[in-house]
Amino acid sequence: MTHPASLRPPPRPVDKARLRAAFSRGATAYDAHARVQRAVVERVLALAARHAPAPRRALDVGAGTGVLLEALLARHPGLAAAGVDLAHGMARAARDRTGPRHLVGDAEALPVASGTLDLALSSSVFQWLPTLGPAVTEVARVLAPGGSFVLALFGDDTLHELHAAWSTALPSGVSDRTHRFHRRTDVEAAVAAAGLELVHLDAERHVEHHADVLSLLRTMRAMGAGNASPERPRALSEAHVVARMIAAYERLRAPEGIPATWDVIYAVARRR
After folding, report:
1. Does 3.40.50.150 match the CATH number of domain 11-158+179-207+261-271?
2. pLDDT for 81-121, tens place per residue?
């Protein structure tokens, strides 16, 4: 669901308290449902191996349950590495996986000294930020000269089927307040503004299929991935609107089930 630059709506605010609570609740079930996110982790690891083959000090920004950091430590046993996540529940789950190297913290205010890292990674997290600039600038701050940042986030065509179904269902005059994802150009702009050199940028799509719309929504809710906007119209929870949304989505049904697209943007940037 791409938008011409001139028509692109302004970013929407994100309720961090709501986001923190949702992902804390979803920590225990996250790994069981995060099939696409697991594939994204593998691609992030491959990009890190290519662009930062011998890291010494690394940080996973938005570490979730610690899957990425666990795999990175297995590849580099002597690595001094830590993870940071906004959600207390995620940090606890990550500590259970890799030990006490996970911190509770904000991607826009990293609890790390400036110029101390040669690798920062983030997988399936930055899509929850209203704008990318502050967090990318924070990553640039903590990187040492020559350090690399490997980033994966869900792009603006993610869940376009669900967005279109909600748009169809909403009553006239009610604005669409569902979450808006970032574009590749947003990544390019944030990297440039932070003074980093963009050395790789691409995208890929994953299409999952679910038995029905409610199954998709339950899966997202179980993971903690919901609408993080502080302003959600009451119409989104009204039964007749939900029924119209489901009917609109069902028109896309394939033999495998209803589709859900995940548009993944990958970037590698380097501090000069």
Report:
1. yes
2. 999 999 999 999 999 998 888 899 999 999 999 999 999 99
Residue owning tokens 């940037």 = 269
Identify whether the C-beta of residue 80 lies closer than 8 Å to the C-beta of residue 58.
yes
pLDDT at 4 over 50: no
Which tens digit of pLDDT belongs to each residue from 23-46?
Answer: 999 998 999 989 999 999 999 999
SS (H, E, C) the chain: CCCCHHHCCCCCCCCHHHHHHHHHHHHHHHHHHCHHHHHHHHHHHHHHHHHCCCCCEEEEECCCCCHHHHHHHHHCCCCEEEEEECCHHHHHHHHHHHCCCEEECECCECCCCCCCEEEEEEECCHHHCCCCHHHHHHHHHHEEEEEEEEEEEEECCCCHHHHHHHHHHCCCCCCCCCCCCECHHHHHHHHHHCCEEEEEEEEEEEEEEECCHHHHHHHHHHHCCCCCCCCCCHHHHCHHHHHHHHHHHHCCCECCEEEEEEEEEEEEEEEC
Structure token digits, residue 5 = 């630059």
Domain ranges of the chain: 11-158+179-207+261-271
